[in-house]
Amino acid sequence: MFSKEVKQELIKQQYRIVGNHSVVKICGWTKKSVKGEGSCYKQKFYGIQAHQCMQMSTCLSCANRCVFCWRGYKAPVSEEWQGEIDDPIEILEGSLKQQKGLLNGFGGFKKIDKKLFNECMQVKHAALSLTGEPILYPRINELIDELHKRKISTFLVTNAQYPEQIKNLAKVTQLYLSLDAPNQELLKEIDLPLFLNYWERLEKSLEYLSKRKEKTCIRLSMIKGMNMCNPEEYAELIKKGDPDFIECKGYMFVGSSRQRLTLENMPFHEDVVDFSNELIKYLPDYEVISEHISSRAVLIARKIFNRNGKWFIGINFEKFFAGEEDYSKEIKEVGLSGIKTRDKINAKFNPEL
Known about the structure:
This protein is α/β, with parallel strands linked by helices. The chain contains twelve helices and 14 strands.
């Protein structure tokens, strides 16, 4: 699955290759968290400890060429799995080893928080969302089971082009489905899908998402001037997926996407807030409840997670690993700040988000 050219490019970008088709990379927020410089939206929204999070993927290949993706067009695209199939335990062991190796250097920082550094060597969460389409890996369920045996929680992101894999996927801690446009024409323009029946696959994926028993989330990647439109059409699609959460996250002008989009396509945080507030006008069962300004991300949650004025949107890991159906946990830091990022002369953003 890795050509020599792709492999060299990935290593140059600080990826680490595991076996024949898997990759690991330290997230920018993991780096910041280890140094005590902040945490990511997953920590604020759901209680994930960013310094103990491993960002990885089991498959570099993807069935889309999304215009907003940081991946270069040298990366492989495919409708079906191709090549060897690595053993899931070998993938996990190799990924943990590479993660530890990438983090070891942080121990030399003078101002490093020793407690956080020691903890970061023990992975507690796996974000199966780094690049490519992780759900395409034929033995993904075995890998998920092995992660959970080791008390490592899982967030998995899929591009909604593999409905049968979504239907048959083992239970993860939270399942994400990417919804990149409100209608068929715009989805083709933004995702550049390989499948001719891409819209039918999306609709079937939404149907199967609605039947999942774990926590689910639909993610909207907001591109200014392209897909921040037609909130009523987004709402109809979201209703089909019936997710617990909706994340509206602003496009970041990073990586190879800069060859396809411009800085003007990157929305300010309040643009994302405004669109989120417009979206929920068509989703009466949902409410805007939190934000992560540095990530330009807004969290929308089902109102059923509001229990006596408290928001239970986080994850109780003990309950999850015990197999309990409700593994929600109260998150106290909610609400919107009202900060206007567009008023700043030099709007800053983190290229690792």
